[in-house]
Amino acid sequence: MNLKQQIQNYKPYNEQEEKDKQTILKYMDSFEDVLTRNNEFAHFTASSWAVNPERTKVLMIYHNIYNSWAWTGGHADGESDLLQTAIREIKEETGVKNVKVLNPDIFSLEIVCVNGHIKNGKYVSSHVHLNLTYLLEVEEKEMLQIKEDENSGVKWFPIEEVENVSNEKWICENIYRKLNEKLKK
Questions:
Q1: 19-57 pLDDT, tens per residue?
Q2: Taking a C-beta distance cutoff of 8 angstroms, is the pair 158, 73 a contact?
Q3: Which of 86, 110, 97 minimizes the C-alpha distance to 172?
Q4: DSSP string over 102-158
Q5: How far apart are CA 132 and CA 109, in angstroms?
Q6: Each residue of 105-151: pLDDT tens digit?
Q7: Tell me: domain 3-184, CATH 3.90.79.10, correct?
């Protein structure tokens, strides 16, 4: 199933997901190159909500650009299999080797605003990420490693603390809270 079909088949959890799903599909129909950063206004990213087997903790990174604890994830960079993007990113950003896919389907979708920032010495204009989130599992005993060019920390947090450790208010209230609610169902 191609990316557009996966998104079309996705059943939104709430109003935010319904609206974002509609917008993402319209954007895919209207613009080219949504899988790479060449599309400077909006492009696809994939994130993971990486939990331990007991579903009591989430693996997060301290993101250098946002100066906040955050989920793992990154740009599609031309890859249309965003589950594989999410897996690649968690491995790169945390150093884990073994990742279990709890469900190959999209766990969540959202449009995330990204403020302008400096990356690799160059200014990146404000834009949005058309983000798909996947539910992954990692054993807590996995060796964790910082990816210095992207993060300065990798750590497990109890699920109930996730909203308190991130300073990204909108993400906490609209995404992390939703992901935890969905995880409990």
A1: 999 999 999 999 989 999 999 999 999 999 999 999 999
A2: no
A3: 110
A4: S-SS--EEEEEEE--EEETTEEE--EEEEEEEEEEE--TTSPP---TTTEEEEEEEE
A5: 5
A6: 999 999 999 999 988 889 999 999 999 999 999 999 999 999 999 99
A7: yes
**pLDDT of amino acid 1:** 77
pLDDT at 185: 86
Q: In which region does residue 171 sit, left (phi positive, over 0), alpha (psi from -120 to 50) or beta (all else)? A: alpha
Cα atoms in the 13 Å half-sphere on the side-chain side of 113 = 6
SS3 5: helix
Q: Which amino acid is at 162?
A: V
pTM: 0.96
CB count in 10 Å sphere of residue 63: 20
